[in-house]
Amino acid sequence: MHQSPTENFRPRVLHVAQPVDGGVARVLTDLTRAQLAAGLGVAVACPDGPLAAELRSLGADVRHWRANRAPGASLGAEVRRVADVVADVRPDVVHAHSAKAGVAGRLAVRGRIPTVFQPHAWSFEAVDGGAAGLARRWERWGARWAARVVCVSEAERLRGEAAGIRARWTVIPNGVDPERFRPAADAVRPPLLRGAGPGDRVVVCVGRLCRQKGQDVLLTAWRRIAGQVPGARLVLVGDGPDRAELAAAAPDSVLFAGAVDDVAPWYRAADLVVLPSRWEGMALAPLEAMACGVPVVVTDVDGARETLPPACAPRCLVPSRNPAALAGAVTALLLDPSVRASLGRRGRAHVLSAHDVRDTAAAVTGVYRALLDDGPPAEAPPVGPAEYERPEHRPTEYGRTEFRPTEYGPTEHRRAEFWRTEPTEHRESTHS
User: Fold this and answer.
1) Count of C-beta atoms within a 10 Å radius of residue 296
2) Residue 211 structural domain
3) Any domain includes 425
4) For the chain, N or C: smaller number of CB within 10 Å?
5) For residues 358 and 224, what is the distance between their CA atoms, to the nearest angstrom?
6) By mean pLDDT, which of 63-77, 298-312, 407-421 is the weakest?
7) Domain named Glycosyltransferase subfamily 4-like N-terminal: which ranges (predicted)?
8) Tens digit of pLDDT for each residue in 164-216?
9) Residue 274 and residue 269: Cα distance in Å, rounded?
C-alpha cells in the first residue's frame, strides 16, 4: 500500500536544478508529477530546454534560471538569479538537485528557508586532484545550509560521511514508474534494430555519453563479447560530450541511437541492459530495465548493490573499470537464456517491492513535512555526530514494502540493509 502525504499538507516547494538531463531530469519530472498530484505547489528554477518544457506541461510554475552546468566565473550571477526567484516564488521549502544547483541554491538561501540538498552522486567524484579537494571542502562547508541532505543510496551517504560532510541525512532510494516501465508481451524492435536477426542478442546501455557512465570501458569489453557471441549487437542510447570519440572506437556491431524521448522500448528490445559506470548515487537505468523484466549487469559503484535483488549480485555485479570482468558477466548471460529470464522476473518483483516512484515521492514529501514541523533550520554547522534518518522498508499486506523513516542516535550508526528484503508474495495487480 502506497504512502500518501498527509491531507491538508500543501507546502510550496521550489526545486532548483542544473544539470537538466539524464537521471536528474527524470527524478525531478517524477517528483514534480507526484507532488502536483498530491496538491503541493511546485515551482522549478532551471535553464530552458526540454526539461523546462515538460515540467511546464505538467503544470509546474517553471522559472528560467540561466546557469552553466559547471562552476565558474558566472557563479555569482547565478546565485543572484536564484535569490531573485526565491524572493518572487516565496517557497516554504527549497529543494536543490545535484552539485551546481546545490552550490547556487544554498548560497542564495543560506538557511533562511528550509533547504533540502540532493547530490545525485557527489561532485568530488567527478573530478580529480585539487578540484576534488575543493569540491569536498565546499560540501563540508555548504552542509550547514542544508536542513536535510537526501541521498539516493546508503553507499552515497557513507561516501559523504567519509569525505567529512556533517549533515542531517535521509536516504530515499530512487524509484521508477512500474506502469510506464513494464514488460511487453510482444516487444517491437526499434527501427535501428530491424536488420538484426531473430537469434541475435541485443545489449543496451542507456546513459549520457560521458566519462561517468563508462561506455568506453564497455566498448573495450565488447571486443571480447562479440568474439564469443556471434551476431551480438550493442546499442548506446543517449548523447553527450564523448559521442564522437566513442563512435570512432566502435565496431560495426555497435549502434548509436542518440537521445530519445522514451527509453522504455529500448529496454524491452534488449536481452540484457548494461551500465558500466565509474561512479553513481543510484542509477535509474538498471531500475527501469528491471521494471521491464530485463536483466542487468552493473558495476559495483555507489548504489549498485542496493539496486539489485541480493540473489542477483553474483551474476549481475562486476568491478568498475574492469573490461575483462564486464565481458565475462555479459557473455555468460547472453549465452544462458534461462538464467536471463529468471533474473528478469526477480528484477521486476524487486522494483515493485522496493523502488516504486510513488513511495519515493511520498518519502520526499515526508521530509518536507518534518522540516516544516521542526521550524526554521539553524544556520550554524552541525556539532557532534551527524543525525541520520533513513526510510525503513516494512512488508505490507501485498508483500510489497513501504517507507517508514527511522532515526538513529549518535552511537547507532550502522550500514542500512533495508534494500535486502525481497517480497514474500508478489501481486502485479497491486499496480494495475
Assistant:
1) 29
2) 191-354
3) no
4) C
5) 40
6) 407-421
7) 22-180
8) 999 999 999 999 999 999 998 776 677 778 777 778 999 999 999 999 999 99
9) 13
